[in-house]
Structures
1.
Amino acid sequence: MSAAPHSAHPHEPSGFAVERGFLVAFARDARLAVRSKGEVIQALAFFVVVVSLFPLAIGPESALLKRIAPGVVWVAALLSVLLTLPRILANDHADGTLEQLALSVYPLPLIVAGKIVAHWLITGLPLALLSPVLGLQFGLESRELVVMFASLMLGTPVLSLVGAIGAALTLGVRGGSILLALLVLPLYIPVLIFGAGAVEQSMAGIDVSANLSLLGAILLLGGLVVPFAVAVAVKISLD
Amino acid sequence: MSRTDMRIFKYSSPAMFFPLAGKLLPWFSALAVLFGAIGLYLGLFVAPEDFQQGEVYRIIFIHVPAAWMGMFIYLVMAMYGVMALTFNTRLSAMMMEALAPTGAIFTALALWTGALWGRPTWGTYWAWDARMTSTLILLFLYIGYIALINAIEDKKRADKAGALLVIVGSINVPIIYFSVKWWNTLHQGLSVSVTSSPKMASIMLWGMLTMAIACWMYAIAVSLARVRAIICERERDRIPGQERIPRRETTAGNAVASS
């Protein structure tokens, strides 16, 4: 054994490092997303349509619309991310790729972390980038638009993280999408409260750093813990 | 490992636990009835009328124990979830499945009695108060767990998936509670809150605690009964003395096929 200390695994590629598991999964999912741009654009279109429904339902009174804007944008972002959650794992599960990834030399938590980051990059980030335009439609000021953008930048990664647990638990389950919503939406409530709360506080002229700090804290905690939980959930589903 | 340890672990096997649960069941049922009777007597007849609220406050004797049990049972489920995932014991997951409906019922009961109490005292059935909102979210968590384990057909996978979900949910419960609390203070404070009500007379407190014990005994009794049903459903043939229960045969064709 001492003669070949670096060959712990028989199929180990040359220059092998476990950290590459993250990049491998990330690059693969990002490439797949680039090749099917339609899905990314659909989620964005859904976000815009849902937000636009509220003025139509409530009426064009600008003071009221401005008042509800943070909540409307955040709820729409929540639903939009929810609809894209199956993309993290379900397609790979359906064609067997996920099983191969789980059997690969790379640690599963790193692989799912790569997939979650890729998911955020193609769903959460575009939502955050688009949100100032929607905020303008609701008459938000520039400072409030910046806070909304910041809250979505901090909050949407948590939506991808927590959603990944639900997505992993419901892999291949009958009626999975409704079930996924039922499991994940209650867990999204803190992010919704702090995210929309930050924008409301900036509208009231209060310092927003408390809410944004809490969002950041949830993101750090989630980023640390959730990949391991998702890896456990994937193993449960593949058993 | 000593002999006594072995004897305790013996009961982590569903087949061994089944008769034990059957023996404990009548005792916990009797205790539930006994404490329930004492608690109701104290609450409805002995405890004085409230100075401010009159007779209506007496709903506290079911409302508060129900709210306690709703929260407590979720924590117990999370504890069983950790055991199910780390020790891989089937019985832990079965206990979770047995506890979930009771926890959900207590949580719903807390919300319902709260609404009935809120109407005459606060003037509203529902307010977006921190406690009420987090209790409602707790009910959603119960419903999510029950929906998940029922949707997964493979029982082994359902057990483990449910265990992980409840563990994740229990980590979220404090975060949800504080987020809702801070969200509530941001919007508006309630004019009347439970904590600001006048100090409770000791007889009222005793009535409430007795009712809490009654609810506890009831929860244990129905969970034992339910876990017996779950064990019977899944592992009937492994239970000593129960193998002879005939399989339910819907048609003659099935009976022939199974024999």
Note: The radius of gyration of chain B is 22 Å.
2.
Amino acid sequence: MANRAMILCISLSAMSKICIAQFQLPRIDVEAKVTQSVLPGDNSGNYSLKALETTSVLLAAHWQISQHLALGWLYSNSFRGSGYNLDDFKFNFGKGDSKALTLLTGPDLRISTGRAKKWRQYLSINYCKVEVVEDKGSFRYSQKTNAFGASVGVARRLGNRLYWNVFEIGAKKFTDQLFWANTSFMLDVKMGFTYNLGKKK
Amino acid sequence: MRFRNHALIGILLLAFISCTIIKDSDITSLAELNALSLKSFEIVQNSQVGNSSSLAILKYDSVVNRISGGTGAHVSRVVGFSLPALGNQKIWLRGASNTSTEVTIGYKDNGMPNAFVVYQGDSVVQAYKFFYNTSNQLIKFVTFIDSVDNKPPLLRIRDSIIYKGETYPSQIIRKSSNPSLAGTFKMFGCTGCSGASSSVSGAGFYFNQFGQQLNQQTYNLNYYSNCNNSGDAYPYSCGSVNNTSSINGGGGPNGSQPNVTFQNNFTFNKTLETILTSGSNTDRYYFHPIMILKDVVPQGSFYFWFYSIDWFKTDATTNNNSDMVKINFNYGQ
């Protein structure tokens, strides 16, 4: 369902761009961020996944509808991660008893303050397809679900086209909890860069 | 140029949408997890005298229909593993030479083990029989250790298990062909253990006597629930034996050091790994069926706890060694 919505959204976006390409200059930005995500688990549950954390690369592109509003798509895939049980979760970062992977992709609406000399704040609201995998060695748990999320951040202007996303913090609520852990919530912090491909807006 | 940018972004987005990190072999529900069965187990030994790895692979998993001559129970499934030679390091196989063996496990209709037999060639070198009461509690466990080449049987043990209405046993009464091994293991609630679950009656126990395998020294078998990596869900997932004897390196009743420790890592009643460490480089474990069957024997973690220590042989010359045996469990559909 989410995939269909995504395809429809992209198709409409692409068609509208092609149709109005003769009349309007494109206003697109792309961004690349590093994301650190944490799924807090269960303290006292029987099978007690205490926490799962991953580090991801997030790529996104937005069509800037106006100076304050941009609609786009994000994609985030982890390149490292760990699951921690009660015993391991002692801030031994990266030394969990299992490996973890996350993938998120979905439409993203960005609401931002207007152009400024230095700082620009923004709110990002998204709906993502989420995949979470915990590799226990002998086998892997995995779950596919959806999530509503939001994040707030601040970007510093580095040039006419380049912004540094200094800090962004967000949260996502899954529509289903992981079947092997009492968790359906994700926190993340991001840092990266945004580059305007088109005309400033 | 701009149109090319759009096209590039569109292609990338479509590629992203189709990406997934989930594999067909992944477990996506508890039902799928419960359907997994043990396909192999690997015994890894890291010791001062050398390292080794022995991978026992599933040889067959057959549906049968027969009555067990040993227990009288109906057996509906037989599973066989080929077990390579374990070497002469930390974990040994009693009665067998250091050579490859075949492990055969018969299961009752309800999925609980009925017998565990180790063959060396065409000779039975070990046989174990499991007896249960109507509540599916293990009430008798019979051990038969033989050796090849027409030598007399090495050892017979019959453990009768007394529950007194509780989930975990209060006594294990041992009869043996070796009279020095006969006796009664009494279990008491551990008053000094931290974090013991109140939901399990007598969550911590210790034994007030031990068998010949421990040279009749005085040992305490301690249960530390706070070394349990799953809260109190698996109350016997880990523990240790303290050498409380002043003989052979122990520190006495008030100053003892762990002489052997063990820990299991579980997920949803499936053991992923078992780790045994010992304090002395001359310590030796003996492979016991409960090491790979604790997930399918009711209160199996408790019996693993009991028999791992029961089958642990130590000279206790040092207590600062880190020799380790790790058993990794691999599951599949």
Note: The two ends of chain A are 33 Å apart (CA to CA).
3.
Amino acid sequence: MDLASILLGGLAAGMVLFVVSVGLSVTMGLMGFVNLAHGGFAMLGGYAIVLAMRHWGLPFFPALALGFVAVALLAALLERTLYARLYRASELDQVLFTIGLIFVMIAGITLAVGPETQTVQLPAWLRGQTDLGLLKYRTYSLALIAFGTLLMAALWLGFERTRIGAQIRAAVDNRRMAESLGVDVGRLFTLTFALGSGLAAVGAGLGAEILGLDPQYPLRYLAYFLIVVAVGGLGRVSGVFFAALAIGVLDFVLKIHFPKGGTMFIYALTIAFLLARPQGLFGKRA
Amino acid sequence: MSTPSAALEYATRHRLRGWEALPWVAALGAFFLFPNYLAFGTQVLVMILFALSLDLVLGYAGIVTLGHAAFFGAGAYTVGMLAAHAGWSEPISGLAAAALVAGLAGWLSGWVLLRTHGLTLLMLTLCTMALLEQAANMFSSFTGGFDGMPGLAFKPILGLYEFDVLFFRSQYLYALAVLFLAFIALRVLVHSSFGRSLTGIRENLLRMHAVGAPVRARQVTAYALSAALAGIAGAVFVQATGYLNLAVLGLERAAGVLIILILGGYGRLYGAFVGALAYLLLEHTLSKAYPTAWQLGIGLTLVLVALYARNGILGLAEALWRRWSAR
Amino acid sequence: MSASLLETRGLAKRFGALEVARGIDFRLEAGARHALIGPNGAGKTTFVNLLTGVLAPSAGRVLLDGEDVTRLAQAKRVKRGIARTFQINQLFRGLSVLENVGLAVAERLGAGGDMVRPAGRRADVIAEASRLIELLHLGAHAGRRIDELPYGRQRLVEIAIALGLEPRLLLLDEPAAGIPSAESHIVLEAIAALPPGIAVLIIEHDMDLVFRFAERITVMVGGAIFAEGTRAEIAANRDVRAVYLGSALDG
């Protein structure tokens, strides 16, 4: 494979990682809650999207919207009823809770749907290749890259230009100070948790062809989601963006050249990077 | 409680209580009563040791790690590789080598990782384990990789007791002896001043700094000791089963030992015993028959434990006992 | 002139655009009884955090007995003789009073690294911890868990821990804060009975306590030293009255 194809393939994978992980980064930066179950919400959304398309005949994009809304609602519900009880709990309790939640989600899906990998029927115009002049590449991957970039731009605008965005940024930087300035951090968190999980659902549906979609999804990619979030810097959307792209490209390249165990370099690099720069790419120094 | 009586209680706390003989009596009893289940029994003993190692680092020092299987695997691969490639299959020296390698890995990674905390630390422990797993995968011609290395044979223990492939008699007693010795050492450690300082670090990190304790050095030491113990558990595992594959380094094993310790009750040493027995018994019976329902059950249990019973079975038992004796 | 026990030169700290400590020049002599007062948010606790190494300064130096300790970690400064209590109790809540004080004493005696001898059988540690517990009239509570004690007693354990470190300099951050008035005399007596060789710097809002205890007083406002002098000088200082004491002294 030539360099351009590799780059594009990696970028596409990275974009999927970005869409799924960005919500986790913001909620972690906001509440400091170790939500290992984030991948589970993504998976549930992916399944909702696939099933809606298959059983209700929904077209691709409405299904994505449905997945977003359904998971956002579920996340908001779980956040208010269960997560909120553990905000003051120890890190261990949060880890235990979210691991338990992953297991419930995985088992639930396996029981309801089955253990097989699910495939998504892409709309016709996304299949096939596009001629970019210099080269021809999969339309689907190019669309992913475009979507990811647009999302990044939209999120950036949202955070920089809206009042809610400013509140979120302030609360991520210093929660106590934001609270004393009148920001309702609890409500903010429910909102970001719901939206972040909804986005993850969209990411899982969109990326089903690249990352796959099966019940083991949350555990298989747990390390990658956490790496992307930590390397990017908690609560930094731009950080998650670049970290996800870097991991996506690296993973793609390594799987081609070192199919057995190549990903060990990703883990080694992550360790080295975070030791040199524990706050991540754009995080603030503790 | 006045100072003299408090001092007396503190001074005699480490003394062996009568009921502490129970687990060992039960283990020996099981040897005679359940001769057909010694393979399973050996697994339980190995997991107890593994869970004890996690208790030191998590229950006592308060370091939350999802990657402790890295050290279990380090020990496992040490004895496996020595036996397969260096012809070194003497079990007890193999244990020592495993402890050394795993302990060194623990010391190095602890020194490097324990500069971080919270999510970063948790994620880095995962990364370290995944790194080792993928490294073993990459060099699969050497390590046996994903399919693993079956049929590893080990010399008789002390030159006398052969590993009994059919009934696991020697393995069981071997594992029991190793567990016993390791447990004694661990018990002494947690009652010592060093062990108490670990509890201090767990209870209030800021305060420990503010009393002049060399916090990081203590944490790294605890991490390294715990890694060595985990390595011994991994080594016994390979020696007893004669089989080695990547699963010893996997997230499943790491999550499994965490669940075992939490179920039993962390920070109490004996929680490892209770948790391992309960979990493995249930897994043995339920998981084969209904694997998905098993996973669902474990998930729900974890959620409930995190919300309501963070101190596990022993914690619940203690709370009930307190309520009962207060009547 | 010999070096003061504690000296800061131009000590400053900023968080982004926020300056919480500005160019603080401060001296404390051995055996001093010094109080640090000021309105809320004046930066008093920040100052103590800078002295003890919890915070690293943006500028300036901290000198202990002439030695520059500005870059020294918290635990190392404790070994050099600085001990502090926290505004909000920082105790080992699940452990008993004896264990709490014992942990501090063990570190001071260098016993913290002993991996063999049971902690409760270190007679040197237990004897010293018991002595401190009796000194602060906590004898009846020695075996009780911290979270079972009334708040005032917990505050005393906080002081006992600091004393267990045998400091040359003791920093007390609002020792009487949060204590119901019925129990506050216990803390006052404990502070009055502190060994005369130790230099004591106390942050307090309780003016009664301050004027009974302190020989010298420093007033801090907005991160900088506003006024400094003897008890009498500060009491008579009009600006101080205006900015802070106000009704507290009139009433």
Note: Chain C has a mean pLDDT of 89.
